[in-house]
Amino acid sequence: MKTEYENYDETSKVYDDNRIPVGIEIILGCFASTPRLLSEQKILDAGCGTGSYVYALKDKLGHLYGLELNEGMLTQARNKCGIHANIGLDQGTLLDPLPYRDETFDGVMCNQVLHHLVAVSEQADFTSVNRLVEEARRVLRPQGTLILNTSSHRQLYDGFWWADLIPDAVGRIAERFPSIESLVSILTEAGFRKTSIFVPMDAVMQGKNYLDPMGPLKKKFRDADSTWSLATDEELERAQARVRLMSQNGTMENYLEIRESLRKKTGQVTLIVSYKQ
Q: Which domain holds residue 62?
């Protein structure tokens, strides 16, 4: 299955090689702030991808459920999580009503998935994001936790060293990301309360491979972030030419230092946490 701009049937095969779950301690802390013990909580990962977040949380929470539309991603999640009795994985879309009864879960998390729901035609009002938030509220129990793991527009430009190489592609994907302020408003309008914002400054989604100076030349590296899929062939060629030139003339190390200094000020991800009353 291919989304509007990314073929995850292909990228799912190498996704985990260059992508790790981030903000796990913050996520656990937010789930723990509610009355029910972590070991008794039932959590939904809406848009679970390859199941990395579900797998990372499996020993801390009672029951985890992952919902994922893409068959390739779901296959990877099943390979990773299938033997664990407290994990359930379902195939389904986040654009329709969630396939769960009212007040089923103690927590719902959406990790770096909101921009995949937004079609070009709806960027002005983010209808699909509003609908998902409303559905999350429906399936949450009273005092349940909703966690939206996303990126601010500034983080998209300054939180990834290679974003400077493909600024037009970053601009295209930024249009699909609701602003942090918009998401807070959406949560409030849907009836959520006690909204908090967390930025794990040290979190790097591409893990140990993030600072690979030759990364943009490698398809596996690019497949770990859908921004690259929005770069035109010409833009990709220009970006790769810059990488080769900086490598040859010895300026790459200084370039990475400058770009890293920006990331350390902005972070890569923002966690928005709110509670159903």
A: 8-156+166-207+266-276
